[in-house]
Amino acid sequence: MIKTITGNRDFAESLRGKRSSFLLCMSNTKTAAIEGITQAGIPGMLHLTPTLDAEFIAIGEVRSLGTIAETPKGVPTPALITRAVHLLHPFREIEMLDLGLEITPKLEHFKLHSFGIAPSGSIAEGANIPAEEVFEKGIAFAQNLVLQSDYIILGESVPAGTTTALATALALGYDAQDKFSSSFKNAPSGIRARVVDQALARIDENDDLFDTLSKVGDNMLIFNAGFILGLQSRDIPIVLAGGTQMACVLLVINRILQMMEGELDTAKIALCTTKWVAEDTSSDIKALLEMVDFPINAYYADFDFSLTSHPALKLYDEGEAKEGVGAGGALMYALLNGITKDSITRKVESFLQ
Amino acid sequence: MIKTITGNRDFAESLRGKRSSFLLCMSNTKTAAIEGITQAGIPGMLHLTPTLDAEFIAIGEVRSLGTIAETPKGVPTPALITRAVHLLHPFREIEMLDLGLEITPKLEHFKLHSFGIAPSGSIAEGANIPAEEVFEKGIAFAQNLVLQSDYIILGESVPAGTTTALATALALGYDAQDKFSSSFKNAPSGIRARVVDQALARIDENDDLFDTLSKVGDNMLIFNAGFILGLQSRDIPIVLAGGTQMACVLLVINRILQMMEGELDTAKIALCTTKWVAEDTSSDIKALLEMVDFPINAYYADFDFSLTSHPALKLYDEGEAKEGVGAGGALMYALLNGITKDSITRKVESFLQ
Q1: Which class for A203: exposed (0-12), middle (13-18), buried (19 or more C-beta within 10 A)?
Q2: Cα–Cα distance between A199 and A217 in angstroms, integer?
Q3: What is the mean predicted confidence (pLDDT) over A308-314?
Q4: Distance from C-alpha of A278 to C-alpha of A75, rounded to nearest angstrom
Q5: Which of A211, A309, A310, B12 is the most buried (most CB within 10 A)?
Q6: Any chain A CB within 8 A of the CB of B9?
Q7: Closest residue of B to A59, CA-based?
Q8: How far, in Å, are A50, B215, B292, B331 from residue B211 at the CA level?
């Protein structure tokens, strides 16, 4: 079942039975190298997470490392959920967007879009992103995109991405403190707060919007702001498959529109996340979505791991992992196409045997 | 699940969720009339097998004879598998290629491509095929093909086709003895060996490649060599849905390329067969595939009849029938689209009630 966070259910229902393309935004920010900042990946190998996630959703195995990315507590990557959906009710196509990767996924026969975007720096020292350029690349990508399906599900894999998103939202003047989720059950607020403070301290009062994004953002946030605005001239519905990071993309768009005195037609845009994000008590995606000037439909897929007894998956229900690699949007796609919670659970379990 | 025989899994994975057209090559060779040479069909009516297979996969009934083609031991044609897949996850279209049929399938509304190709003679007495002409018709077909789908699954129904394939491979100088499968569990090596010897005895040292193919080949092998080479100028992925006969098409192509000093781009070509062929101990498809100069992705669909208790289907698992009518490729198509082994089994069983 699909539940509504903001807006109404009509847009989601209109996608029932439609075929979707899954686009995965992969990006590295040096912010992830800060000790203890994220749980999304293997310690010392966090930069590999998006690469391994891409390999796993596309072909069901990881080539750039021996095993599937797990968090230190043994929570497997949400890529398992996205892959399970792809096996049960395949996406029309999977395409990858290299938004600044350190290691390219080892895949043949899958479309990998490259934009000449470098991994971004740590926001503690300045992300150093050519923000306007990355933004414009997002617009251009939207304008030239050729799609074989009815709509896009846009996922992301950006280790430490909730930290850069929090810093970005605060730097853009939103009251976003305590509203961003974390890959940890208990967000590492000490470390994260210190990093965000360091990032915000670098903002100068003369900085314009893109100067700010250059310092505290990440490539995914900036590119996708451009991508979504670029889609306005196309007739392609899009589901932002993610939690508070995707909400932050909308916060960025909101400031860009205010700057340009523009408007966003959101009739064909929605956000869809997981139940773990929607019900997370240490973040507040609904509050973030209500900070933008435009109406936005947002949903979550009513899926949890109550039907499994696998201890690693149970950790999701305990809040140790919540979202990523488009899991929320993928679950919505499955549920909208008649795939049951039980089938999804069994398929995810099959990867862990 | 799709398993890899040669190459890697990427090409197969890239077809997940894509729609396919199913093309069935139907051909008669008088070789099938040799007593005891094949188990693919009804004794005395073997020439009808491709006609009946085509009718059954297209419309679910046989019109040119009262009952579905069965082998003497009661093994039903693999067309049942292909038809089951088509019911569970339909092909975008089914088209028939008459590559020398004695009896045309009685079908309306299905595209039947005719090429003015006559049934070929028995290789024991000279197949008497206008090989260059048939080859060129394959090229022309590829160049003019209009497709509504993302890729082609190419199946075949040629009674005695493994015998003509074995003779062809040997005549072309491949070390192919004991590497070709048979419709029998225990290949009729006495009869087959005698026929192949008779065929090879007809080869003259002055024969060129096409002279040789004219004498010992069959229309399917020669036409498809042209078809696949013709597809090089098109952007259409193709799955050769078959076992050692389809491997032989690649052996033929390999010799043609050597003669022309040409190359084959195999990025969009794969072979897919059944588990019964892949695990057959009396043939060796992997060895055949490794004899060509180009890399080739080859797979098998991890499907067997372990979930049924129907005695006629159990014979597959005992090796009495292995492949044909594109069963391996059809199974891959089903598995790549989320159809379960259990559903396929139940659907095939339903035809036998």
Answers
A1: middle
A2: 9
A3: 92
A4: 19
A5: B12
A6: yes
A7: B13
A8: 56, 7, 21, 36
Tell me the residue type at B50. P
Distance of alpha carbon A268 from alpha carbon A231, whole angstroms: 9
How far apart, in whole angstroms, are the C-alpha atoms of residue B26 and residue B102?
A: 10
- Contact criterion met (CB below 8 Å) for A121 and A213: no
Q: Look at the block and give the residue holding tokens 């229902």.
A: A13
Q: Which of B9, B17, B338 is the closest to A59 by Cβ?
A: B9
Map tokens 């897949």 to a residue.
B85
Q: Name the one residue in this structure whose structure tokens are 């395409």.
A: A95
pLDDT above 60 (res B187):
no
Residue A60 CB burial class (10 angstroms; 0-12, 13-18, ≥19):
middle
Tell me which fold the domain A2-351 belongs to.
Answer: Rossmann fold (3.40.50)
Q: CA of B16: which chain A residue's CA is closest?
A: A90
The structural domains of chain B, with segments of one domain joined by +, span 2-351
The model's pLDDT over A104-151, given as tens digits with 9 standing for 90+, comes to 999 999 999 999 999 999 999 999 999 999 999 999 999 999 998 999
Q: In this model, does residue A202 exceed pLDDT 70?
A: yes
What six digits make up the tokens of A148? 């074989």
Element (H, E) at A299: strand A297-301
Taking residues B323-341, report their average pLDDT: 97
Sheet of B238-241: strand order equals: B2-6, B297-301, B269-274, B238-241, B151-157, B20-26, B93-98, B111-114
User: What are the chain B neighbours of A93 within 8 Å (beta carbons)?
Assistant: 17-18
| Beta carbons of A90 and B11 less than 8 Å apart | no
Residue A148: other Cβ atoms inside 10 A:
12
A108: contact with B, CB 8 A cutoff: yes
Contact between residue B204 and residue B211 where contact means Cβ atoms under 8 Å apart: yes
Give A302 to chain B, closest Cα distance, Å: 22
Interface touch A61/B18, C-beta < 8 Å: no
Place of tokens 């350190």: A102
Report CB contact under 8 Å: A110, B10.
yes
pLDDT value for A11: 97
Distance from CA of B18 to the nearest CA of A (A): 6
Going by DSSP bridges, is the β-strand pair B111-114/B238-241 parallel, antiparallel, or unpaired? unpaired
Put simply, whether B6 touches A (Cβ < 8 Å) is no
Nearest to A20 by CA among B17, B216, B285, B108: B17
> Averaged over A167-173, what is the pLDDT?
97
Burial class (CB in 10 A: 0-12, 13-18, 19+), B114: exposed
Q: Do A60 and B17 touch (CB under 8 A)?
A: no
- Give how far the C-alpha of residue A207 lies from the chain's centroid of Cα atoms, to the nearest Å: 27
Q: Work out the mean pLDDT of chain A and round it to a whole number.
A: 93
CA distance A69 to A53: 8
| pLDDT at A43 (0 to 100) | 75
Of B10, B11, B17, the CB nearest to A91: B17
Q: Which amino acid is at A207?
A: D
Q: Please answer whether residues B143 and B234 qualify as being in contact, where contact means their C-beta atoms are separated by less than 8 angstroms.
A: yes
Query: In B, which residues are within 8 Å of A89 by CB distance?
Result: 338
Please give the Cα distance from B33 to B25 (Å, whole number). 19
- Total count of residues recorded for chain A: 353
Taken in order A143, A148, A154, A158, the sign of the CA dihedral is negative
Confidence of residue B37 (pLDDT cuts 50, 70, 90): confident
Residue B73 contacts A where some CB pair is shorter than 8 Å: no
